[in-house]
Design brief:
Elements lengths: L3 H12 L8 E2 L4 E8 L4 E5 L5 E6 L2 E2 L8 H12 L3 E6 L1 E2 L2 E2 L1 E2 L2 E7 L3 E2 L5 H7 L4 E2 L6 H5 L9 H13 L4 H4 L8 E7 L5 E7 L5 E2 L5 E3 L8 E3 L9 E2 L4 E6 L17 E7 L9 E6 L5 E7 L5
Parallel strand pairs: 4-10, 19-20
Antiparallel strand pairs: 1-11, 2-3, 2-6, 3-4, 5-12, 6-10, 7-8, 9-10, 13-14, 14-19, 15-18, 16-17, 16-21, 21-22
Length: 303
């Protein structure tokens, strides 16, 4: 079994490159004891009353045991939680807490202080053994204060970008587009600020104004973005750089506006319309020669 110390040592350097997001110590978390990992996103825990309960991690998905890196995800997950005191952030619903196939849905932490290094989901995603997978987020619920499904996305997304940048785990061994230098590293398909994270994981700058095209699953002209038609001159994305493409009401009145190119992080405001379906969609990225170079699908069909 992989030792916890080794796991933390391996990931800490990259995780500390992310913004250090600290939610503080939470008093409403449920302390439990980790027993074993059933797979990469499900564990068995002992509750305070001594009973055992299967727990499904919220907001992420890991490959099944029979899929690429599925067994690795289970071993890594087990190394994090087995024999450890854990803290669960559960989702209260009418009559109890959210369940999925007899599993308690929860965000799971190694400490009552919530950080990127205490979030089990974030550590799995940073290792390239799981991916952000928010199931059908509800903007109405989020506006009304129920942000459970996306509560810790700001921890997970930077971890996913770093894993994609390094071709770690799933992003290297199991990705049909692993050789692509410009990729879709993540999608935030909820709230008034939808964001597609375009990542240059090559060694040279890439000119985003050269005719790269982003589309949704429909591929319609209305939902297709050719950056070369909206940006004057060149727009170089440096190695390791991210272009955040915004849509939704955040971009109302800002169509075609963008921050300075050539930075490690740039923002382009596409349209005030909603582009991405909340429940199910697929983003496709095409090179200037028309070749499909990356596809990012949600939700994932991993079992």
């Amino acid at each position: 079994m992989i030792k916890k110390v080794g796991l933390f040592a391996l990931l800490l350097a990259s995780i500390l490159l992310f913004s250090f997001l600290l939610y503080g110590e939470q008093s409403d978390l449920l302390p439990v004891q980790g027993i074993r990992a059933e797979d990469g996103d499900t564990i068995l825990v002992q509750l305070p009353d001594g009973t055992r309960q299967a727990v499904r991690y919220a907001s992420i998905n890991a490959p099944g045991l029979g899929q690429c890196l599925g067994k690795d995800a289970q071993v890594y997950n087990g190394g994090l939680i087995k024999g450890s005191k854990l803290w669960l952030d559960r989702h209260p619903i009418k009559g109890g807490y959210e369940m999925a196939q007899d599993r308690l849905v929860a965000h799971v932490f190694l400490s009552s202080t919530i950080t990127q290094t205490s979030s089990v989901s974030t550590l799995l995603v940073a290792a390239g053994l799981a991916r952000l997978d928010v199931f059908n987020p509800s903007d109405t619920a989020i506006r009304n204060g129920d942000d459970f499904s996306v509560r810790y996305a700001d921890l997970i997304i930077p971890a996913q970008i770093e894993a994609a940048r390094s071709k770690r785990g799933l992003w290297g061994q199991c990705d049909s587009y692993a050789e692509s230098l410009l990729i879709i590293a993540a999608i935030k398909q909820w709230s008034d600020d939808e964001i597609v994270y375009i990542l240059n994981r090559g060694q040279q700058p890439i000119d985003l104004a050269a005719g790269w095209i982003l589309t949704d699953a429909s591929g319609s002209e209305r939902n297709s973005l050719n950056l070369g038609e909206h940006i004057m001159g060149s727009c170089l994305l440096p190695p390791g750089g991210i272009m955040r493409i915004h849509s939704g009401s955040i971009a109302t009145g800002k169509g075609d506006e963008h921050t300075a190119c050539g930075q490690q992080t740039s923002d382009f405001y596409w349209t005030g319309r909603r582009i991405w379906n909340q429940d199910k969609d697929e983003a496709r990225l095409y090179a200037p020669d028309g070749a499909l170079i990356d596809v990012y699908t949600y939700p994932l069909d991993w079992k």
